[in-house]
Amino acid sequence: MAKVEEEESFQNLVSARQLLESSLQKSRALASAVDETGLRLEMISQRLPSLEAAARSIISLQKCAFHIDPAIAAAAAVLKVFHTARELQKSLLSYNCSDDHLFNYLSLMNRLQQVLRFLADNCRLAIKWLEGIVEHMEDYAITNDWYLSNVKKSLGILQDLQAKEESLGILSAAFQKLEIEFKRLLMENSVPLALASLATTCNVEEALNQSCLPAPTIQKLQAILVRLNSNSQLGMCISVYVDVRSSNAKRSLRALGLDYLDMSITKFDDEQGMEEDYIEKWSKHLVLAVKYLFELEYRLCNEVFKKIGSDVGMSCFAKIAAQSGILEFLQFGKHVTESSNKDAIKMLKLLDMFASLDNLRLDFNRLFRGEDCTEIQNQTRDLIRRIVDGACQIFWQLPLQVELQRGGSPPSDGSLPRLVSFVTSYCNQLLGDEYRPIMAQVLVIHHSWKQESYEEGLISYQVCKIMKAIGVNLDRWSKAYEDISLSYLFMMNNHCHFCNLKGTKLGDVMGDSWLTAHGQYTDYYAALYLRESWGNLVTLVSQKSLQTSLAGQDLVKKRLKAFNDAFDERYKKQSKWIICNENLRKKVCQHLEQAILPVYQSYMQNYRPLVEQDVKYSVQNLEKLLSCMFQPTITKYWGGNNGDLVGNVEYKSSAAWSLGNMLSALFPQKLSKYGRTKRAQWMNRMKNSVTNQFRFSLTAI
After folding, report:
1. CA 348, CA 388: separation in Å to the nearest integer?
2. 103 SS3 class
3. What does the alpha-carbon distance between residue 597 and residue 409 come to, in Å, rounded to a whole number?
4. How far is CA 182 from the centre of its chain?
């Protein structure tokens, strides 16, 4: 057992020895490997800095390549689009934009603008990318010349492209062609409006539609304006539109003969006789200008500019209206109100002007609204104020103007003073349906400005004051005659004239009692005239006067000679006297014939053998002479100072008198301005007016 244990112990020692030898060998091998590894690590440590630098460079290049490639690709895409823009620009420069090619031209422009918008949006962005890459490479000291060269080359090209785009403007030439086409379309389609022929038309809409620009032309103008407006290039086309349409409107108005609008106030005062004609023309021409010409321009402006805003169209219309003549119309009206002429006719002309403006009020408010028409609005309001003030001033002075005529002399022929005829005709006009509503409207406005209330009947009251002043004038003038017979005939004429106003507006205002009184006065003065002037003539050849004495031949001859001398004296003097109303004249002549002829005929029958050699007038000749007495000749109806009420009119003498000839002599300037048809219409109207005033049937004297 002990031996066995000793043998096991020996075996263990042998095993331990073998293990130690094996471990020693492994240690030696490990030491050798460690030595070799150390040498390797030392070599690696020595190469590590260069490897690290190389690795860092490789990583940076990879990162730069990641950014550079897309940037250069973007720059290349921008350059490609730029070349496309250049090709489109060349096409636009060579393309014709006139007539049917316009819309194709605008389509090319639209494509070019889309390209330019792409360039504008992307060119700057690509430049920023490349600038960032250059800065990055320089910051990190990347020395790859190939990459850096490509980046800088692309950057330079894009910067040149941007500079050319901003400095030259690729679309500028295309805009100029559109502006030229815009002007051509306007010039070729703008035709002066035949305003004179439109004065007789009833269909305003039809006339305006025929004078408007053609629809295709308007569509082309609209398309051009829309394209230019999208590029803020409207200024030139607006100026062209205003200039072309203003010139066209001026030509339209010039055909009407508007030279009178340019008259100065001084020249206006020098030609007061023509003032009425000028005002009549002004009213007619203003209606034509507003209703047709400016209405047409207003519609065209709204239609042409409607796709870019109504404010632009309204601004253009305001400039066209101002430049073509509306301000000259208003300035002429101002000159009328400022002229020194303040007679009654001017008041009616001012009322005509007010009526014209009032009839156009809605048109003015619609056409000339807004801030762009401020000057036109202000001048219109000022003109209306001047017209209202001027008309009211003359209206209140009418009785005074009649009174100022009182110091003049009555007509030498005993006829109706021109002032009386004028005033009655004037008052009839003022009270008529044409002027009375206008005068009332003017007075209402004037009272409202003074914060006073207008009273109905004011016009009638003023007319009564005028007629009262006329009555006072007649009383004074009748006393100025040295011949009492002529004074009676003068009063007979005037009372007959007033009595003849029955059925007129003035007669209605004055009343039946007033008319009846003048009829009675007519008979009264007719009787006084016959008795005073012809009563003692009959006694010279009456049988009764001869029966009271010895009717010898000498006495018969003396009586006949006295009758002849008295008749000659009366006839010579009174053949120049006038009875204005034809019925009254015939009545007076009839009474003379009835009073004289029977007595003269009896005398001649009884004593013809005794006075055969001394007979100067046969009964027939005497009848003919008496029947032709008191016939009007064209002479001066007024010999005194005319003042401001009536104005100055010259009369011409004529043996063969007629109402038409008298009117022609009274108004030569007015009639010379009218054509044959209008002259005939005016003459008929005046004849009817005068005839109505003088129509009268004389009662028995």
Report:
1. 12
2. helix
3. 35
4. 27
